[in-house]
Structures are given as C-alpha cells and as structure tokens.
Specification:
Blueprint lengths: L6 H11 L7 H6 L11 H13 L6 H10 L16 H14 L5 H28 L5 H4 L5 H11 L4 H13 L3 E3 L2 E3 L20 E3 L7 H12 L7 H15 L8 E3 H5 L17 H15 L2 H14 L3 H5 L10 H14 L2 H18 L6 H12 L7 H13 L15
Antiparallel strand pairs: 1-2, 3-4
Length: about 425
C-alpha cells in the first residue's frame, strides 16, 4: 500500500477552502467572464472537486455548486471560445464529471459537443483557406490554449471516432509542410508576429514557437495522443516525425529555447541556453512529456529514452529548479510533479525510477516537511487566487496523483495535452 505524501494535506485543505463559490464571490462580480474560464474560473475549480469526488476524497456538492456558477450565463461558443474558455472548457469539465458519474450531464454535453464541432469545422475551413494562400499562421490558429490543438483535445476526449477530429488532425498535418516566405523556406508553423500574437519589434520576421501552451508542441501532442488511440489520418506519422526532428535540432542538453527567431534560424552557430524553468507551458516538462508520447505512438525507443532522460535530468537540475518560483500547474512544482508522475507510468523501468524520485522531491519542495497546510493554502489563495492554470485549484489538483501514487480517476489533464 502506498503511503500518501504529506502534500496531500495541502491539496485537501485548498479544496476545503474552495468548496463554496461564495467564499470567492468577489472574483465573479469583478470578472464575470471567469465563470466560463477553465484557466481562471469556475470550470477549473470544478475540475478539482470532480477529481476528488471521483476518487472518494470529497463530496459532490462542491461540484454542483461550481458547475452552477459556470452555467449562470449563456455559454460562449464560436470564434470567442477555445479550450480554456466557453463551450470547449465546459465540455471538457462536464466530460470529466460524466466519467465519474456515467449517464450524467448527457443533455448538456450533447449541446456542447455540437458547439465544439461546429467551431472546429469553422477553424479548419479558415486554416485550409490560409494554407492555400500560402500565408503564415497565427499562433491562435493551432496552439493548445486558443487553437486547433486544444479544440482537438476536447474532440479526442469526447468523439474520438468522429469525422471532426480527423479534420483537425489533417489541418495540423498540413501545418508541418514547409512554406516559402520572403525568399526563405520556413516551417509551416512559423508565426509572422511575436509570442503575444501581435507585432513585436523584438521579433523581426516572426518566430517559431516551441512551447506546449502556445507553440508547435501542442499540435505534436494531439497528433501523438490521437495515434496512440488509433485515430490516424494520412501523413500523421510523417508530421510527428517532422516536429520531433525540429525539436531535436534545437535541443540544448535537456532544454529547448522557448522560440526560434529569424536571426537564430539564419545563424551559423548559437550560444548555450541560460538556465530556465522546466515548466509545462514552455519548458522541458511539457516538451519532453510530449516527445515521450510521440515516441510511444511511433514505437521509437531511441526517442522515448531520450525524452525520459531529458525530463529526469531537467527535474534534477538545481539551476533549472531555481528558476521555478511557484506551485502552479502551468510553471510550478505541482505541475512538474504531476508530469513526472504521468511520465513515470509510461517510462522504461530505469527511467521510471528516476522520474518517481524526481516527483517525490518536487512534492517535498511544494510542501516542505512540518509546513502547516492551512497556512500554506490560505497564503496560496491570497497570492495566486483560485485559478486552475496558475493558482490554487490547479495546484491542489496536480498534487493529487503524485501524492497518492495513483493515476487520475478522470481525464482532467487532457486539457494539458499530456495524457
């Protein structure tokens, strides 16, 4: 029997403080759009309580309370919605609830499925039109947070046998075709602007974003996850190979640059990377886990070993960990522990030992011995708020699996495209 890590008490205490939406009512009055925000608001907090109820660690009443907050306004769909906001965010959250309580929420899910599929179809049509023109893409066309990779993750979870998810995969396959622009052959995911999606004088000629949240690792994740589930379209394996080859080209030890500028692309030599946090959103944790998934999908043992070694090395690198300054899912210790735990379950035996050891040390850092969980939970809520991606709800959720040594009971982390 696995003895739970003490950080489980921190997770429990955060959940207790977030049981009643009225306790954080000021967030909804000042930012009503958070009601449908998976990143910042009610769906993300509901995910925490859904997973706890599914594992028997908490009651269903907080789930119902937070879902009521999320549903207390017309659901946003269409161009203003994406994985972390509106119909797709609610579809993901309710799908997790339905996993724990089969046959529940089916009417609402059917409505949301239609909205997500319609938006995915529109996005694919726009992407194909842009591709036919030979224009460069915006990051929000394809990334995990706002783009097709994120929408595709919802479709893969809900309707893996549907035609719409195959259309999304086909668009992402075409994204990996090189494009000629300003006399230079560029990867098809080269964005004309900066990482913010707006013109930026620091990025003349645009950039290629490597991150999982906003870059090419998001499409790689979806392509690999789909292939592992037997959902395949023409060119999918080749597209996975194209992206992994790109990442291999830019790997520096066990880390990657967040993005590649036009100057870096044209340079003959490049300097070493400075220490950077191994986060989900841009760092080694996200990139290495996605490459492990790609290796498992392709049956590539060399890439699998490399990805697992990179992840274990980054999570034991004092300089990289020193750049990590919070507990969040997005770029903090709880998120790193969760990814290490997930990767260990899929790793080669000798790498699994290293990853489980790394996860245990990350939990010790997230909740040091003899730390009072109530004090830490209240401080976290005061400083980071209840958010899923960068706040307390996501921290509590990410701690659950590694602290208990079990796999998640729901597919809540499908929204991270890491499982």
């Amino acid at each position: 029997m696995t003895i739970p890590h003490p950080s489980l008490r921190l997770s429990d205490r955060i959940a207790e403080l977030l049981a009643d939406p009225e306790a954080v009512a000021s967030a909804w009055s000042s930012r009503p759009q958070w009601r449908q925000s998976l990143a910042h608001g009610a769906p993300g907090v509901a995910l925490l309580h859904i997973e706890r109820a599914a594992t028997g660690r908490g009651p269903w009443e907080p789930v119902r309370a937070w879902l009521a907050v999320a549903a207390d306004a017309p659901v946003t769909s269409g161009a203003d919605s994406y994985l972390y906001y509106g119909a797709p965010a609610l579809a993901h959250t309710l799908a997790c609830a339905a996993q724990a309580r089969p046959c529940s929420y089916q009417r609402a899910l059917a409505h949301l499925d239609q909205a997500v599929a319609a938006d995915a179809t529109r996005r694919c049509d726009e992407a194909l039109t842009r591709l036919d023109r030979g224009d460069l893409p915006a990051l929000a066309e394809f990334d995990a947070i706002r783009g097709l990779a994120g929408i595709g993750a919802v479709l893969l979870h809900r309707t893996p046998d549907g035609e719409t998810v195959r259309r999304v995969l086909s668009c992402l396959v075409r994204l990996t075709d090189d494009v000629e622009h300003d006399g230079r052959l560029l990867p098809g995911w080269w964005a004309p602007h900066g990482p913010s999606g707006r013109p930026d004088e620091r990025f003349p000629g645009g950039h290629a974003n490597n991150g999982l949240a906003h870059g090419i690792a998001g499409p790689l994740a979806l392509l690999a996850l789909a292939l592992r589930r037997g959902v395949q379209v023409d060119g999918q394996r080749q597209a996975i190979g194209t992206i992994t080859a790109w990442l291999e080209r830019w790997r520096d030890g066990h880390a990657w640059p967040y993005w590649i500028t036009r100057g870096q692309l044209d340079a003959v030599a490049r300097g070493p990377l400075p220490p950077q946090r191994p986060s989900w959103c841009y760092g080694t944790a996200g990139l290495a886990r996605v490459q492990q998934l790609a290796a498992l999908a392709l049956g590539d043992q060399r890439l699998r070993h490399q990805a697992e070694t990179d992840l274990a090395s980054a999570l034991a690198d004092p300089k990289a960990l020193a750049a990590t300054t919070d507990l969040s899912v997005c770029h903090g210790y709880a998120g790193l522990a969760h990814i290490a735990h997930r990767a260990a379950d899929d790793a080669l035996p000798h790498n699994a030992v290293r990853l489980r050891s790394a996860a245990a040390l990350l939990l010790d850092t997230a909740h040091p011995p003899r730390t009072d969980p109530d004090t830490q939970a209240r401080r976290l809520l005061a400083t980071a708020g209840p958010a899923f991606l960068a706040g307390a709800a996501g921290t509590a959720l990410a701690l659950l699996a590694p602290a208990t040594g079990a796999a998640p009971a729901t597919r809540w982390d499908a929204c991270l495209l890491t499982a």
